[in-house]
Design a protein that fits this description.
The chain is an alpha+beta fold. Helices cover 34% and strands 24% of the residues. The protein is built from 9 helices and 11 strands. The strands form 2 sheets. The chain has a 7-stranded antiparallel β-sheet with strand order 1-9-6-11-4-2-3. A hairpin with a 2-residue loop joins β2 and β3. The protein is globular and about 45 Å long. The two termini are 18 Å apart.
Length: 259
């Protein structure tokens, strides 16, 4: 943390993952193929890279209330230093999140509520409360000219949903999920499986903002047992607990500056 009360970016511009990743992540990566096949075989929804939003009826709530959610993002997450760099918050994103380029305003993280932030976004909070199996939700803020390099999520037990809030139109903003290129449209939802290799580009002069949500994949047994065991271990890991502490520290520093 700097003398002014804000967190400083790492001195090196090289993107390096934090050492000592939690054992579920390390083991999961080694056994990912086997574990993902077991989970996929138990899935109650499709296993394609990009999924049909109609399989997730609750996404209609996001589309219905997207302007309310956008208004809260503008009023809270896009003001000053409220949304820190994801590299500052999450040790597991430091290999792909260049400091200052990908910012985040967390509302939920791996099943933990960020109550201070949820209180500031009551309409968004109420919509999130109706999402089954919600684990993570944050405003994902991508600076102009940003490229998030190719990466993969660690478990097929989670599915990702984006609600597009701000999509610049002076260039190309896109994501590759395996061999598909997808683009966002304001007020629309995109659901995809982040265990497929994916990367993102913001080739515009504007800032792209989405509400990023992760939720538990609908599963039958035995896949649900495996997914629950893995997610429970990650949730209790030092990595997730560090990220929670970092959010709390950031919010405290910002509140002190505002005061």
């Amino acid at each position: 943390m700097t003398a002014s009360g804000t967190f400083a970016a790492p001195a090196s511009s090289t993107l390096v993952a934090e050492p000592g990743r939690p054992w579920p992540v390390r083991v999961g990566k080694r056994l990912r193929g086997t574990v993902d096949r077991l989970i996929a075989g138990s899935s109650l929804v499709g296993n394609s890279p990009v999924l049909d939003v109609r399989d997730f009826a609750w996404t209609a709530l996001l589309r219905t209330h997207w302007q309310d959610i956008l208004a809260e993002a503008r009023a809270v997450a896009l003001v000053g230093d409220a949304a820190p760099s994801l590299a500052t918050i999450s040790p597991d994103h430091r290999a792909i999140a260049e400091p200052g380029k990908w910012r985040s305003y967390f509302l939920w993280g791996y099943g933990y509520r960020i109550d201070d932030n949820l209180t500031r976004c009551p309409r968004t909070r109420d919509v999130l409360a109706r999402i089954p199996g919600l684990t993570t939700a944050f405003f994902s803020i991508l600076a102009p000219g940003t490229h998030i390099p190719a990466h993969r999520g660690v478990t097929k037990g989670l599915i990702t949903c984006h609600l597009a809030l701000i999509v610049p139109r002076d260039g190309d903003v896109r994501m590759r999920v395996r061999d598909r290129i997808v683009r966002w449209s304001e007020g629309e939802t995109l659901v995809f499986d982040d265990t497929y290799d994916h990367e993102v580009w913001n080739d515009t002069d504007g800032t792209r903002v989405v509400l990023l949500i992760q939720f538990e994949r609908p599963l039958r047994r035995p896949g649900k047992w495996i997914a629950d065991l893995f997610l429970g271990a990650v949730r209790r890991s030092a990595f997730v607990q560090e990220a929670r502490a970092n959010v709390a520290k950031w919010n405290t520093a910002v509140a002190q500056l505002d005061g």
